[in-house]
Specification:
The structure is a homodimer.
Chain A: E1 2-9, H1 13-24, H2 26-33, E2 35-43, E3 60-61, H3 65-68, E4 73-78, H4 86-95, E5 99-102, H5 105-121, E6 126-127, H6 138-145, E7 151-157, H7 160-172, H8 176-185, H9 194-197, H10 200-214, E8 224-225, H11 233-241, E9 244-255, E10 258-269, E11 281-288, E12 292-299, H12 303-322, E13 340-341, E14 348-358, H13 363-373, E15 378-383, E16 391-398, E17 401-402, H14 403-414, E18 424-428
Parallel strand pairs in A: 1-2, 1-4, 2-3, 4-5, 5-6, 8-10, 10-13, 10-18
Antiparallel strand pairs in A: 7-9, 7-11, 9-10, 11-12, 14-16, 14-17, 14-18, 15-16
Chain lengths: 431, 431
């Protein structure tokens, strides 16, 4: 039976999961693939750490060249994350005509064009199923299965940490700090979770999803990003009262040749499937002109779901190598007619707005007057009774309005003497 | 640019969708694939019918040999459905070294081993993404993406007609006949819908899903099949009162080397994602030991969703052909250790049971006595007040019990003088 040698860079959580599965599922993979996938070398900076799987010490090295310069190794699996030195390792692997499997969303979001160009030049492939949605096969589905669709929208719940916190707040009535604390205790939040909570991780994944869905790598700085750190328990409750759930969504929409990319806490209707995606689960909603609406749901992170995706990519490549030609995948970048990327000020949306105002006559008239001047029309308003300090939340839902007008209006409103905190505005998606 | 010639057999609803998409998306596919997919011939028995797409009359033929015997045609797309003559056409296409794309679930469920053996002998492929779940990429996901997983369970809502009827009954409070009538009017039910309503169509799809998930083609007659024709509006309501939704599920479970396959109306917890799958939508829930729980959701039928899946398969094959070697897919049948297929009597389940009994003292004692003799323990019971004829429904939920015992018990109970209709029992899945 033919043998394909692979090298693993990064023997951490996911890396050790991959090693364990390759060991325990060697036979299953042999039966399905007709190939023996042979892990020849593992490179990591720390060779002493205890891991969930024991390997022959001769497999381990701290010298990356033992992988990158080994002509027998055909596939390099990069699982160290971050931009440097992952990028340099991948570029060198490609130059040495090795295929690459990576889970590195930050790197792809920032340097995809450079990496794929290097792969093209060397006629090798870069696969990255594990970069979005853990074990959910969203990359392959978008790239291969939905190949003939023109996509309209992608909505992703793609950050497990944020989703865990928002769902615990909603279900357990916890405030943000308490939910974050429990997330830490359960290992669902990293020590420094700001990439997750501020929406950056979701934005990385959105850039990848949008490339697959719309054929274009959008620079990260063109993605509008809002995290969940300002979502209060009150907002979650008020949204619930109006029939909505708040989720951190990564949104890509294509309309009239213009692409909108944003990450934001979003009110979505409670009956929508995405509202039922709780805890650390991820889900990606896609609408395409042929398939209609689809949702892909599963665990978005974790050792074994991610290892499953990595091994799916390894298997794809091993197959192609068995046949001695690198099996192509549909072009990622096919330049359909996207004229430009919209700025956040150019979008239109419905909004949920919470004002914190002194409870006195005439406040509501002033607020709605300013909104009216900016052509923002109100669909509902409710004043929540809160006794303390006589500052009361006033919650409004608007009809569709332009983001630019809304921002101008809120700037004026926040300068009113009776407004005592910065106003919170969240966008609403009907889906 | 390289050109791949394909032949289409069956110019009906899905066939005309495929033709239309190939026409309108030719450029998109060229950009993504680097190949021109050229529809060379369309065979159908009726060439006069009006269709949604106009084609050059020279493309059309009623003579299947113009496709099967044309050496230029590399891919045959079979969309006529049914066993004969689809089977003969496919076998002949394979013998003539043509790859085959089909949406024919009945044929695969009944003759898969013969067809795949013929394909293997001729070193060509049979792809069938459109056979389950319309445009949902479940076949590719199970076969390729989840390749390293050992699956535990598959639950599929895979028949749009049945799901439409059950959800309309639940949401609109309609009885079965009325829901079926509306389904007919909307084109969601065929003129003779018994394949759908009796669960046969779901069973066909279950056989395919189980082959992908468990590596074995189970003969259709080993699948236990119950349709939705006996589900009453009352059962739906009583289930709702206990927090359950009734869905027609195609279930495959693997436990201790034994495989269970069944299609049945099933009570599932209302909070579960599958409970929110309404109307003509399909969803497939999969649990694998690495990925955990996943759900794939989308439109399970219809012209364009199905065409999208067919074209995904064509694109996969066209790629492989571009490289002049047929790209393999992981083995479907890999014979992991499944010792046997369980019979329905051997399973264990929780049950929802509705008795229709004369409202007189002692009935409940008799029923529960018989259940007790058969070691069936009751978790809840409620007697629904119904005045007419003094026949009242008694609804019970049981703890886990053996199907064999339950059947014996119900046979005895149905012979009681006070029981006036056949007792309805539905299985409950905790998911």
């Amino acid at each position: 039976m033919q043998r394909i040698d692979i090298g693993l860079v990064g023997f951490g959580t996911v890396g050790s999961g991959v090693v364990k599965v390759l060991k325990s599922r060697g036979n299953l993979l042999k039966k399905k693939l007709g190939i023996r996938i042979h892990l020849k070398k593992i490179c990591d900076t720390n060779l002493r750490r205890r891991r969930i799987v024991q390997v022959n010490p001769s497999l381990l090295t701290r010298d990356i060249r033992q992988i990158l310069d080994d002509p027998q190794i055909k596939i390099v699996v990069e699982l160290i994350g971050g931009i440097h030195p992952a990028k340099e390792f991948i570029i060198q692997a490609l130059r040495n005509k090795k295929h690459v499997v990576t889970a590195n969303k930050a790197l792809l979001a920032e340097c995809a064009e450079e990496i794929f160009e290097e792969a093209r030049r060397n006629n090798v492939r870069v696969y990255f199923e594990a970069s979005v949605g853990g074990g959910i096969p969203i990359i392959k589905s978008l790239r291969e299965s939905l190949i003939s669709n023109r996509l309209q929208k992608i909505y992703g719940i793609v950050n497990g940490t944020s989703n865990y916190i928002l769902s615990q707040m909603a279900q357990e009535n916890w405030d943000f700090r308490r939910a974050l604390k429990v997330a830490h205790q359960k290992g669902y939040a990293e020590k420094r979770p700001s990439l997750d909570l501020k929406g950056i991780d979701s934005a990385h994944k959105l850039v990848i999803l949008a490339a697959l869905g719309f054929g274009r790598w959008v620079p990260l700085e063109k993605v509008y990003i809002e995290g969940i750190t300002d979502v209060s328990l009150n907002d979650i409750r008020y949204a619930q009262e109006s029939g909505y759930t708040i989720k951190l969504l990564a949104i890509a929409k294509c309309e009239a040749g213009e692409l909108e990319l944003r990450v934001q806490p979003t009110l979505i209707p409670r009956e929508h499937l995405l509202s039922s995606v709780n805890g650390i689960y991820n889900a990606i909603y896609v609408s395409g002109d042929l398939v209609g609406e689809q949702v892909f749901y599963g665990e978005g992170a974790g050792r074994f779901p991610t290892a499953s995706a990595v091994i799916g990519d390894i298997a794809d490549l091993a197959y192609a190598l068995k046949q001695e030609v690198p099996s192509a995948k549909p072009q990622l970048v096919y330049r359909i007619n996207i004229r430009r990327i919209r700025k956040i000020e150019e979008i239109a949306s419905r909004y949920y707005i919470r004002f914190m105002a002194i409870d006195r006559p005439g406040v509501l008239a002033k607020i709605s007057g300013i909104l009216g001047q900016h052509k923002i029309s109100i669909s509902s308003v409710s004043q929540k009774e809160r006794k303390w300090a006589r500052i009361v939340p006033i919650v409004m839902m608007t009809h569709e309005a332009s983001e630019r007008s809304l921002r101008l209006a809120l700037r004026k409103i926040d300068r009113l003497e009776s407004i005592r905190r910065k106003t919170v505005a969240l966008r609403v998606e009907a889906l």
